[in-house]
Write a structure and sequence with these properties.
Layout: E1 3-5, E2 11-13, E3 17-18, H1 26-37, E4 42-44, H2 52-66, E5 74-79, H3 86-100, E6 107-110, H4 117-132, E7 139-142, H5 146-153, E8 162-166, H6 174-183, E9 186-190, H7 202-211, H8 215-225, E10 229-230, H9 237-244, H10 253-260
Parallel strand pairs: 3-4, 4-5, 5-6, 6-7, 7-8, 8-9, 9-10
Antiparallel strand pairs: 1-2
Helix pairs in contact: 1-2, 2-3, 3-4, 7-8
């Protein structure tokens, strides 16, 4: 498994299992367990997904089945907007830990910037408190645009290690990518397969046939080639395995360029500048 290295020296596996829109069910538990049994070491969830309990059960069963240690895994969850405010962060974090059955998280993210800049900054100070108190290994953000970073970084002492955003060939986020690179903040892609929409694209399919891989594997590899951490979601055992089987091939610069040219700044999620959680 390849990793990215944060500015604080900690590492994160470049491919993980996403659990967005996976119900808090035995299917969720089974998919997390199957992922761990088949080589995944990175699992991503969030308070608002309402599936932390079953993700946690899947983690416990996966560790028991493989003999791996908790320290072999990289687990992310996210602080929801309803819990913003410096004084609320620690309680929300403990709630997520309790649901997951874990003693710590490897990464805790602010899920959205929200529309109140002062509250965003105050909340980040609560994230810093967790980090300074050694409660969490790394802290980051999700869905932040350049303007949110500029407001945040002007007033805080600890930079986010990562920004988890919508990123796929139809939404290349070029100026944000350049900004993050300068700041030494990594990018992570949620919903990289666009809820399977991107898999039907003719360009994606033609690259897939050139390399003898599936469309999903091509998109995951394209993220890796861009240095972007990627968390495809699946509950199907064969697809969970397929999505990790992306380290035995590379895309040529011509193929990457072809996929990059699909960009049309198209989002499937909300615009982070306007989203307040409702």
């Amino acid at each position: 498994m390849e990793h990215v290295t944060f500015y604080n020296g900690n590492e994160m596996p470049i491919v993980g299992l996403g659990t967005f829109r996976v119900e808090n069910s035995d299917e969720c538990k089974a998919s997390v367990k199957h992922a761990i049994e088949n080589g995944y070491t990175h699992i991503d969830t969030a308070m608002v997904y309402e599936n932390e309990e079953k993700v946690g059960e899947g983690i416990a069963e996966g560790l028991a089945a493989t003999g791996k240690q908790r320290s072999d895994l990289f687990i992310t969850s996210k602080l929801w907007l309803a819990d913003y405010g410096r004084e609320n962060v620690a309680d929300a974090y403990e709630t997520s830990l309790n649901k997951l059955g874990l003693d710590y998280l490897d990464l805790y993210l602010m899920h959205w910037p929200g529309t109140d800049e002062a509250l965003m900054i105050d909340t980040w100070q609560g994230m810093e408190d967790l980090y300074k108190n050694d409660r969490v290994k790394n802290i980051g953000v999700s869905n932040f645009k350049t303007e949110h970073f500029e407001a945040l970084l002007a007033q805080v002492s600890i930079k986010p290690v990562i920004n988890q955003v919508e990123f796929h060939p139809y939404l290349l986020q070029e100026s944000l990518s350049r900004y993050l690179e300068v700041q030494n903040i990594h990018m992570e892609s949620w919903s990289p397969l666009m809820n399977a929409q991107i898999l039907e694209d003719d360009t994606v399919k033609s690259v897939a046939s050139e390399v003898g891989k599936s469309s999903a594997q091509v998109i995951i590899r394209w993220n890796i080639e861009h240095g972007v951490v990627v968390i495809p979601k699946s509950v199907t055992p064969s697809r969970i395995e397929e999505n990790l089987n992306v380290f035995d091939f590379q895309l040529t610069s011509a193929q990457i360029e072809k996929l990059d040219k699909l960009n049309e700044d198209r989002r499937i999620g909300p615009d982070p500048s306007e989203y307040s959680g409702h």
